[in-house]
TrEMBL record:
Signal peptide feature range: none
SUPFAM superfamilies given in the database record: Periplasmic binding protein-like II
Organism: Streptomyces paludis
Domain of life (superkingdom): Bacteria
Domain Solute-binding protein family 3/N-terminal stretches: 34-262
Gene3D superfamilies, A to Z: Periplasmic binding protein-like II
Protein name (record): ABC transporter substrate-binding protein
PANTHER family assigned to the protein according to its UniProt record, in alphabetical order: ARGININE-BINDING EXTRACELLULAR PROTEIN ARTP, MEMBRANE-BOUND LYTIC MUREIN TRANSGLYCOSYLASE F
Length: 297
């Protein structure tokens, strides 16, 4: 009988381990009996700091996956741009931080995909700079991004487009984490900040009327759990644990708990197959035409 693999609390040190592992645990762990994961806990609803430590979709999910392997889960919470170096240096076993799957990152790590999301730009309430068209309306503006995240890549590519169009480039303000990017807009240092579509929904709900959703783009980005390049044992174990989690209904329950849209479900998307091992895919080129939504609160 399959042991329960539901999410279990929000402690930052461990979840209760399973009596017997449903999935054969990987070897060569950073700490015996423990799955050590790296995260940048500033990206709600996936990971953020709560009163008892990191919380969110990714945190609940990794605890469930660890339990199905008979392991405890232990977090290393660091800035986003330090996650891949920590994994490569074997300080962590996986990266569990809503990491976008890009061709550049796939040169450094392997991925187990689990969700599809898009990008948004949030502005101060009322969208005073009237940002709607991407990238045209970003010309001459200051946009805050998380350093090392996909938003920084997109904005860099959009600046190339603006230059080709003969328009002034935007100023890209690269900051350590998503929270800092949000605060840059809140304090008036930036005109907009980039975040994911689920992240934008969480921010708008938590901050009431402080921000306006100005534009949505790139609604085809896959995110995944990253493992060291060529670490087939870890990738196989994570994939098997994730497939069991999906089959148990735990994944769907977390989607509902964190109010994530159904079209973000990687396992029901017609473009991705039906299992965690169905392939990682990659994002479209940032220079492809972007769809933008009208501004609104």
């Amino acid at each position: 009988m399959m042991a329960a693999v539901s999410a279990c609390g929000s402690s930052d040190t461990a979840s209760s381990s399973a009596v017997a592992a449903d999935v054969t645990p990987p070897k060569n762990l950073a700490s015996s009996g423990t799955l050590t994961y790296g995260t940048a806990a500033s990206f709600p609803p996936f990971e953020s700091q709560g009163s008892d430590g990191p919380q969110g979709f990714d945190i609940d999910m990794i605890k469930a996956l660890s339990a199905s392997m008979g392991l405890k889960a232990k977090v290393l919470d660091i800035d986003f741009d330090g996650l891949i170096p920590a994994l490569s240096g074997k300080r962590t076993d996986v990266i569990n931080s809503a990491m976008y799957i890009t061709p550049e990152r796939e040169k450094k790590v392997d991925f187990v995909p689990y969700m599809i999301i898009g990008e948004t730009l949030l502005t101060p309430k009322g969208n005073p700079k009237k940002i709607a068209r991407i990238p045209e309306d970003l010309s001459g503006k200051t946009v805050a991004v998380t350093r090392g995240a996909i938003g920084e890549t997109y904005m860099t590519e959009y600046n190339k487009e603006l230059k080709q169009q003969g328009r002034a480039e935007m100023k890209i303000m690269s900051l350590p984490n998503n929270q800092d990017a949000m605060l840059a807009v809140q304090s008036g240092r930036a005109d907009a900040f980039d975040t994911s579509t689920p992240g934008a929904a969480a921010t708008l709900a938590a901050t009431k009327d402080r921000f306006t959703l100005a534009a949505t783009f790139k609604n085809e980005t896959r995110i995944g759990i990253a493992v060291r390049k060529g670490d087939t044992g870890m990738k196989t174990a994570i994939s098997a644990a994730l497939d069991r989690f999906v089959a148990s209904g735990g994944y769907a329950k977390l989607m509902a708990k964190y109010q994530l849209p159904e079209d973000s479900n990687y396992f029901t998307s017609s473009d991705t197959g039906t299992g965690a091992s169905a392939g990682t895919g990659s994002t479209a080129s940032p220079s492809a035409p972007a769809s933008s939504s009208a501004s609104g609160s």
